[in-house]
Amino acid sequence: MPTIGDKVIIVVTTAAGVVVTTAAILTLYGFTASGIAYGSMAAGLQSMIGNVVLGSPFSVLQSLGATGVISSLAIVAGVILVGGCVYLLYKYMKKPTPRPKL
Length: 102
Prior knowledge:
single chain, two-stranded antiparallel ribbon
């Protein structure tokens, strides 16, 4: 049965996975640190939108990609994700030591 500490590690590892996934999806769709990637889905969407309104969902995604905040967080989150997974796998996959019979 997971302890409170294990549950905290599971929640933090899951949150880190969300950050890493978000960064990957933003990059995949074309929201990069150097702006909208040429020929990407984001570029196609921007060409249909025209002028992007401040505060719109597209503008927020563009800001997240351009500032690199998500990319920076993804590096830290990736380390947390790997560490949490390794810890949980080690804890739950190790074989129990047999107790000597008295």
